[in-house]
Design brief:
Helix content is 46%, strand content 22%. By secondary structure, the protein is an alpha+beta fold. The chain has a single domain, classed as Glycoprotein, Type 4 Pilin (2-Layer Sandwich). A six-stranded antiparallel sheet has the order 1-2-3-4-5-6, with helices on one face. Strand 5 and strand 6 form a beta hairpin. The model has no long low-confidence stretch (mean pLDDT 91).
Length: 141
């Protein structure tokens, strides 16, 4: 008498169904992941602005004037971000003073720091400002 051994494994149809389900889940999850990443970068930019404002107040108590970006970064052992000329970059956002190169006289009375980055769509600019009043404002969008 002839008996067939039981065959084990998945059929081609079963494998195609699994691959299709994984593709559908990926199509749903990837845009959410991009949005979550952009939100995390935005939150990091705001937290960095808060740190910079606090540092400005500490610097003014110590030196009688506010600091420029390079002095803020040096105050934190150059760990805030990477300086490129008069701008600082961190986590996809660019920070700069307004005016870009403030004088000692301007820093004696106040400061304004702007940061610019991109939102979840990759094109919409997000712009935040912080000043000597300790207020962080979202300018765009």
């Amino acid at each position: 008498m002839f008996t067939c051994a039981e065959e084990r494994g998945f059929s081609l149809i079963e494998l195609l169904i699994v691959v299709t389900v994984i593709g559908i889940i990926s199509a749903i999850a990837i845009p959410s992941l991009a949005g979550a990443r952009a939100a995390a970068q935005k939150a990091n930019a705001i937290a960095t602005l808060r740190l910079m404002v606090t540092t400005e107040f500490q610097f003014r108590v110590s030196y009688g004037r506010y600091a420029d970006l390079s002095e803020i970064n040096q105050f934190h052992d150059n760990n805030i971000g990477a300086m490129t000329g008069r701008t600082l970059t961190r986590q996809g956002y660019t920070f700069q003073m307004i005016p870009t190169a403030p004088t000692q006289a301007q820093l004696a009375t106040g400061f304004t720091i702007a940061t610019t980055g991109h939102g979840p769509d990759g094109t919409t600019p997000y712009i935040f400002l912080a000043d000597q009043g300790g207020i962080i404002s979202q300018i765009s969008p």
